[in-house]
Amino acid sequence: DLSIRVRDLNLWYGKNQALKNLNIDLFQKNVTALIGPSGCGKSTFLRCLNRMNDLIPTVHTEGLVEMDGHDVNAKKMDEVALRRRVGMVFQKPNPFPKSIYENVSYAPRMHDIVSRKADQDELVEQALRDAGLWNEVKDKLQEPGTSLSGGQQQRLCIARAIAVQPDVILMDEPTSALDPISTATIEDLMDRLKEKFTIVTVTHNMQQAARVADYTAFFHLGEIIEYNDTKVMFSTP
Ligand code: ADP
Ligand code: ADP
């Protein structure tokens, strides 16, 4: 089923056009990889899906981005609803300077998904389990998130993103700051998370796209020059 529909999307930073007439359908409960050389617009495109470009004053956008049939840029679409539907994981793990528990429970509490302590505890455990981190942290939930290793911090950030039960998780080069073992762990995790979430991930790494992605979109100079089933895209004729 369709999760995200993008039609005739154009984006400029001042006078420089960074996205050119993008048209793409992203499917639910799949991993889609966005690949292509540095500077071709992958991160810019990702920021169109959660409206983070709104924070950049020089940005001008035209075109349609729909999520589950709702226009993401419609005036009535409230920011809070969007934040609940779309989680984001960045290249560098960026836990809040708070406890592991607080990193995961903060957003669900703010969104009134949970208020009772017991419900919060349960949600924190579930998110940490889904992020494959529970066994490693269950005895130290009150320790700072920043005390964990890089790979664990990134899984904590994934737990934080999924704790609000979004439909979509955006990942911007989620493994490029990690060692090979942590990278493999996150790749395995993506494979499991797609049972519950639609995942859109940016990567430079073709091998990673081939390993994790169901669909791959190849960006070049602000355009999507190929979009296909990953197996078809990487098959050698
Ligand atoms: P990628 O993620 O593929 O490396 P980006 O989306 O970061 O590419 O960048 C696409 C183009 O937009 C580049 O030419 C980049 O210089 C430009 N760009 C990105 N962010 C900004 C910004 N905040 N202001 C101006 N130009 C930007
Ligand atoms: P609508 O109000 O568009 O008829 P709903 O009752 O389903 O549809 O949605 C209620 C509100 O939730 C919408 O007005 C919108 O602000 C928000 N919303 C719905 N879908 C999304 C979405 N995919 N992303 C962000 N916000 C959404």
From TrEMBL:
**Name assigned to this protein:** Phosphate ABC transporter ATP-binding protein, PhoT family (TC 3.A.1.7.1)
Question: One MF term in GO for this entry?
Answer: ATP binding
Species this protein is from: Vreelandella arcis
Question: Please, one GO biological process term?
Answer: phosphate ion transmembrane transport
Keywords linked to the UniProt accession: ATP-binding, Nucleotide-binding, Phosphate transport, Transport
Q: Does the keyword Isomerase apply?
A: no
**Is the keyword Transferase assigned to this protein?**
no
Q: Which GO terms describe its cellular component?
A: membrane
| Domain ABC transporter, chain residue ranges per copy | 4-237
Say which domain of life the source belongs to: Bacteria
Shown residues in whole-protein numbering: 29 to 265 of 279
